[in-house]
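Why do we care about 3D structure at all? Because function follows from shape, and shape follows, mostly, from sequence. That is the central idea of this module. The next example makes it concrete: a single protein chain, its amino acid sequence, and then its structure expressed as tokens.
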Amino acid sequence: MAEPRLIEISPVTRVEGHGKVTIHLDKDGMVDEARLHIVEFRGFERFIHGRLLWEVPVIVQRLCGICPVSHHLAAAKAMDVICGVDELPPTAEKMRRLMHYGQVMQSHVLHFFHLAAPDLLFGFDAPADRRNIFEVLREKPELGRRAIMMRKFGQDIIEATAGKKIHGTAAIPGGINRNLPIETRDGFLKTVAEMQDWAMDALALARDYTLDHAEMVGGFAAFPSKYMSLVREGDGALDLYHGNLRMIDAEGGTIFDQLPYDRYHEVLVEDVRSWSYMKFPFIKEIGPDTGWYRVGPLARMNTVSLIDTPLANAAREELMAAHDTVKVHAVLANHWARMIEVLHCVEKITELLHDPDLQGTDLKATGERREEGIGVIEAPRGNLIHHYKVDENDQVTYCNLIVSTTHNNEGMNRAVKDVAVKHISGQPEITEGMLNHVEVAIRAYDPCLSCATHALGQMPLEVELLDAAGQTLDKRARAT
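And the structure:
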């Protein structure tokens, strides 16, 4: 048996937050178990207690610097309910939607170009010092420039609607605190057509990669599962900001449909495991073993009936037609789905920029005070649930957050095991290529582990290889 050893690898892995992978081998050196551990304690749901309700949309977004708008809006939607507001003024809702489309666009662009593209362009086994955005900029400067400018466009939309690019203050209980000035709108209109062209090109890149590597994609952490997302009331269209819950099984059959999201707790339960601080949600009636599901861009492509923007809808139809199964299960197809959503966001941004309601002055509604509110939104990484209770002094007494990465916890663990079985079984040593294959499987979910655990700081990914007796054979960590 090999002596335990530690190998340091740089740079920090391309995931957001702290994860640890353990891989257990049986007596024959075959993978028996592989797990993704989240080792930071989740405390945000407790220290939000006692905060005043109007503070929550601003405070809670400190969970994350990548997708703060998602938490800002989910919390604001929950506080709308508590303030008795069931329908926002048109200007308020459309400003929030514009903010959200900018957020989803910039987040997807960040993930695809900065985090995933080095693997797709240079290969999973490429040297570690080549798999980064700087090499993309060096070898494909125009692609890198577009990546930066597309993300900038999305962040500029956020700044114009939220007040700041990160941790804005515009969404308030019952509405919004600003509209969009004409001159700001006109500035966006000068460049939005170019953004659409670039989004089409990025979509083609993701699509072509998936189709050109169809055999690999179809066998890489590809397994059937259930899927859940919001869908628009009535026609089941993609709606990233609002809607009802739909869940389907692996064959496309309906588990529940058009379920008001304030009833999520009637169908979902969060399980806990001794080896991870991140919870494992599952469908209450089915149970934890088989009741798990996935969320995110690919899940949305599977669950929705259509997309209400023409270019993105045609792209979704192409994605669905390209796969033999009724639903798409290949985790790497998430990249194709993300770029479809980027195109959809640009189409929706264009539509909203021509809407005069954005210059309206009716920004806030009021209603009869309530004690409980639930806000749900489709964040870039998938379904995001914020649930609060507030006392007569306007102080939070209860907070439950189910973030996208938490919904995907079981799926990520199964992806890690799938890759480990295929690339580690029978191998006594962890290679750089194997390590990155494991990361690629996790990375395809675009996990935000800091959101899921509410941890602070820069934290590396660790992979441990254990023998049947639990002894460490090999260990690698990407250092901060």
